[in-house]
Amino acid sequence: MVKGYAALGPGEPLQLIEYDLGPLLSDQVQIDVSYCGICHSDLSMIDNAWGMTTYPLVPGHEVAGVVSAIGSDVKHLTVGQRVGLGWHAGYCNQCCLCTSGDQNLCADATATIINHHGGFANQVRAQANSAIPIPDGLDFKSVGPLFCGGITVFNPLVQYDIKPTDHVAIIGIGGLGHMALEFLNAWGCHVTAFTSTISKRDELMQMGAKEVIDTNNIQAIESAGGRFDLILSTVNVKLNWNLYLGTLKPKGRLHFVGATLDPLDLNVFQLIMGQRQVSGSPVGSPRVIEKMLDFAHLHQLNPIVEVFEMDQVNQAITRLRSGQAHYRVVLKQ
Questions:
Q1: Is 90 exceeded by the pLDDT of residue 260?
Q2: Which of 96, 126, 218, 229 qualifies as a FRET site for 11, CA 20 to 30 Å off?
Q3: CA pair distance 143, 305, nearest whole angstrom
Q4: In angstroms, what CA-CA distances link 76 with 26, 97, 133, 249?
């Protein structure tokens, strides 16, 4: 029997439950969880903020663990191998998106925490092609957040062919934004941080920001007019998006990876006259996740984490909800 921490209703504290995962399928692996990050998406699912939660819910989709069993058809993974598991625990493997390498866009993909028990547990199951080997040399305790938060901000760099000469701005330097800052700095870009917490300035400069702009200062934002090739928004709140559109160069892109639920109020003339673009993207495909891990290994990039024991899961969730986490929260089994 697997032991995991589950929410039994919207917003409820997690409780320890036991459940049987059933027989291991031929294309699956079983992962003994060592560490699991807590993502804001876990909070949204616990609260049923997206209207898609089924209870009991075992959250957790930033898993770093060790393969403990493999299905009969699995040839590329071995028992004892370190792997990570992110938002997806499987794909249909038949649609044109899957066969062309865009499995992350598969309409029939299995989400790790939607009608599926996640990583706030001692074990988790997944289709083998969604369990990605972790390179030796990456810090095991902090690698988990790369499998959701990290790939979410890394994927646009690949999809939109971001160049080292590009000027890129990040809105919100929190759990997602600090990883975007690390990636983009290592990518070679000139990186500007938009933050409402200007007290972070020195830390953000040490992390690679060339400039820090206070989002509470409208004049400071306006002074960056026409400067950026890409703006990456990691926040989940409504902002004056037209103000930020004005800081894009012609042909610049405002890209959303933070799931703001409010409609976008945009000045279409700013888009048309500057041939600017607005877009969004989810997590990446298995191949792009592998690229991200190789990049992180090459540059020795690790998310900044706070570690809690698994049985402290409710304290850890409270810490994340408080907005005071520095920068990601990880559970240790």
A1: no
A2: 126
A3: 9
A4: 13, 22, 10, 45
What span, in angstroms and rounded, lies between the C-alpha atoms of 171 and 181?
10
Q: Distance of CA 49 to CAs 52, 117, 137, 308, Å?
A: 8, 18, 37, 25
pLDDT tens, 114-163? 999 999 999 999 999 999 999 999 999 999 999 999 999 999 999 999 99
CATH class of domain segment(s) 2-148+284-290+303-332: alpha beta
C-alpha distances (whole Å) from 252 to each of 151, 263, 267, 277, 278 are 22, 21, 15, 6, 9
CATH placement of domain 151-280: 3.40.50.720
Q: How far apart are CA 214 and CA 318, in angstroms?
A: 27
Q: Is 43 helix (H, G, I), strand (E, B) or coil?
A: helix
Instruction: Give per-residue pLDDT as tens, 285-315.
Output: 999 999 999 999 999 999 999 999 999 999 9
Q: With 90 as the cut, is the pLDDT of residue 317 above it?
A: yes
Q: Give the number of other Cβ atoms within 10 Å of residue 154's Cβ.
A: 27
Q: Domains of the chain: which residue ranges?
A: 2-148+284-290+303-332, 151-280
- Burial class from Cβ neighbours inside 10 Å (0-12, 13-18, 19+) for residue 219 reads exposed
- CA dist 169 and 157 (Å) reads 13
